Amino acid sequence: MKFLRIPHYGRRRLLAACLVIICAASSASALVGDDWKPVDPAHLAMKAPIVDKDADAEVIFWEVRVAHEDKGSDLGTVLNHYIRIKIFTERGRESQGRIDIPAAKIGRREIQIKDIAGRTIKPDGSIVELKKEDIFERDVVKASGLKVKAKSFAMPAVEPGAIIEYRWREVRSGISPYNRFYFSREIPAQFVKYYIKPYGDRLVDSEGRAVGLRAQTFYGQMTPFVKEKDGSHSTSMSNVPAFREEPRMPPEDAVRPWMLVYYAPDKKNTPDQFWKDYAKRVHEDTKSLLKVNDDVKKVAAEAVGDATTPEQKLERLFDYVRANIKRVYDDASGLTPDQIKKLKENKSPADTLKRGIGTDQDIDALFGALAAASGFDVRVACTSDRSDFFFDQNLTTDYFIDPTSIAVRVGDSWRLFNPASTYVPFGMLRWQEEGIPTLIADSKEPVWVSSPISAPEKSMEKRKAKLKLAEDGTLEGEVRIEYTGHFAADMKEDNDDESPASREEILKGKFKARMGGIEISDVKIENVNDPIKPFVYSFRVKVPGYAQRTGKRLFLQPAFFQRGLGALFPTAARTYSVYFHYPWAEEDMVEIELPEGFALDNAEAPLPINPGPISQYKPSLGVTTDNRALVYKRNFYFGAGQAGGALLFQTVNYNPLKNYFDEVHKQDKHSISLKQVVTPAATSSN
């Protein structure tokens, strides 16, 4: 479902070098012992948490041993987890009594959860074991909306004062020279310790340099590594605060403590020199990907046609690639995993043209070659993914950055393109790659540029409703919703691998959760797989009791599309910054035909709000010329004229931001009164 990024050249070379040694040295690793560790009586007697005085439960220790296994012909990274938790309150019993151990993929690496064992130590010291038959698999949904598989189980006999402990094996398929390891959980932790067994003692990279174990910590302070008797290296962190997801928060790895463990040569470089060397290496590695031959020149000339301006030429080349080259890993490609395995590797843009199918890298490279054949100066552009991590140019590891786009010089500036992002319009990048530092690869003088961030009107949610209100308060009629830009790309990615029935259920779920008794029928969903046209919902809707009847009056909320929505920021306090993925705009037009014999009763329009150039909220209310229908319009945008960093609001700015959106929410809930001026019977007699 999600975009697959271009492979990282530096990591791929290092991985190949490591594997030569690993294959010879790997061995199976065991679980964290066959016996549970003794329980300290002081822990059993503990009455209050240490890290957070308000905590309902607290981790006493969380121990993780990392090793590598040779599973026949496959290699895997294995994490043996062992965690012990003290329960203090009834809320702690409820929150920690049921355990979900997620098995989310890491990129394309599969995760398996195995060998779960657990037990509860009651306050009197008696022990109740977790039964194997009580462990099952289910889907869990995170606060971010991501659905993942998880092993689930309920710990037995949990009560305040008890200690629970459980262990499991997390098996990550394949071997990567980069691994992320986390220190925080949803409750505070007194002590977290990792034991990491290196791939081997004599690793070298492709240039013959000695490669050693390296680690970098983010958002926390760990102890220096200590070499253990078994050859592993250990590090720990104490008094780790709880991590709890919040809506519209930065990516997890931009706020919670974790470490990146990787293998690199012991070479001291300034950030400036490091990135120059990296960009030059990428330029050399990717030159062949942009190779122009006669076939490429011919297609470029045909695609450009009579276009005269650089913008026109690039758009035609962009559209040609989108229309004629199938993306291998696209959910909508129709290819099975076996078919993908059998595909030949494209070694040049000419191969991609000939076969009509390619990886993300192939598609982007073909666009670059066609642009070069049309006379443009073309480079590979390297950038990070801000949905994953906030990149810092002062880092001296290339783990967070990849060659993912094509840079084309137009006049005195570089334009960035990524036609492999199937649903992103021409002139835009994926939102994850907008508004962040981007490195233009070059053999002599690579340069950093900031990728542009799309204006709010580029990502529009445009909603129309033509409805009729009955005197009993029932509202029904036709609805159409269009999504463009990043909205559309997200909607298409979320729906393109779903069945038509599932897509319809997704739509209905959006409304049923906030409008009780709503009926949705005649659903049409358009342009799910179209890279250019808006994503469109159209349907018929019926909402019994939408307007409240009191005597001869009906009380009506004109903002139909906001009905039932809660406040965007419902909590008074905030732990993490507020992070908007991209600027956006909303445009609503709702026409409601009034019941026979009813008229507006001194109705006032909701109030507009203009906090400055970043945003605007502009509702309006009127009637048709015959006074038979109410016309409500709502225009809203957020993020205008902002650089990527201005989509991030620190906690010190939370209150004014919350107050603004609370006021928008208040005006969206604005209700008007309709008064019955003529009864249906009187109307009939006249």
Structure characterization notes:
By secondary structure, the chain is α+β, with helices and mostly antiparallel strands. It is built from 13 helices and 36 strands. An eight-stranded mixed beta sheet has the order 5-4-8-2-1-10-14-13. It is globular, with a radius of gyration of 29 Å. The N and C termini lie far apart (62 Å).
Which terms would index this structure?
686 residues, alpha+beta, single chain
Quick structural gist:
With 686 residues, the chain is α+β, with helices and mostly antiparallel strands.
Describe the secondary-structure layout.
Blueprint: H1 9-25, H2 41-45, E1 57-71, E2 74-87, H3 90-97, E3 98-102, E4 111-121, E5 127-129, E6 136-141, E7 147-154, E8 163-173, E9 178-182, E10 189-196, E11 203-204, E12 210-218, E13 226-227, E14 233-240, E15 258-265, H4 271-286, H5 294-304, H6 310-324, E16 326-327, H7 337-342, H8 349-355, E17 357-358, H9 360-373, E18 378-383, E19 402-410, E20 413-417, E21 437-440, E22 447-450, E23 460-469, E24 475-483, H10 485-495, H11 500-512, E25 519-526, E26 535-543, E27 548-550, E28 553-556, E29 578-579, E30 584-593, E31 598-600, E32 609-612, E33 615-623, E34 629-638, E35 648-649, H12 654-668, E36 672-676, H13 680-685
Parallel strand pairs: 1-10, 16-17, 23-30
Antiparallel strand pairs: 1-2, 2-8, 3-7, 4-5, 4-8, 6-7, 9-15, 10-14, 11-12, 12-15, 13-14, 18-19, 18-21, 19-20, 21-22, 23-24, 24-26, 25-26, 27-28, 28-36, 29-35, 30-34, 31-36, 32-33, 33-34
